[in-house]
Design a protein that fits this description.
single chain, alpha+beta, Alpha-Beta Plaits, two-stranded antiparallel ribbon, 3 helices
Length: about 120
Amino acid sequence: MVAEDIILAPVVTEKSSSEIQDGKYTFKVNKKATKIDIKMAVEKLFDVKVLNVNTMTVKGKEKRVGRNVGKTSDWKKAIVTIDTEVGEKSYLTKGGKEVKVTKKYKTSIDEFMGA
C-alpha cells in the first residue's frame, strides 16, 4: 500500500487535541493497515520519528431516518506517539569510542490541524 492510502484523515476531537502536547496524534487509517504500515506511512509523510502505534477498530453506530434503520460503517483509528525530545543521542561503538548523532527529523506534525 502507498502511504497516502494508509493515512486517510486526522481525527480532531477535544481529547486528541489535548494529547498533541504529549506527542500523540490520532488518525483515521485504512482498515487493512497494520501497525508497521502505519508507522512507516507516518514517518514518510510527516518526516517524524514514531515511537509507538496503538490501533483500534471503531464499530459503526445504528442510525435512523424516519422508520428506516441503517448502520454507519466500521473504521480503524490509530494513535501515533512521536519522539518530541530535541537533542543529541550518543552511543558507544565497538572500539569504545563515543559517537554523537543529531536528529534529522521533526519533533511535531505541523500539517495535522491545517496549520
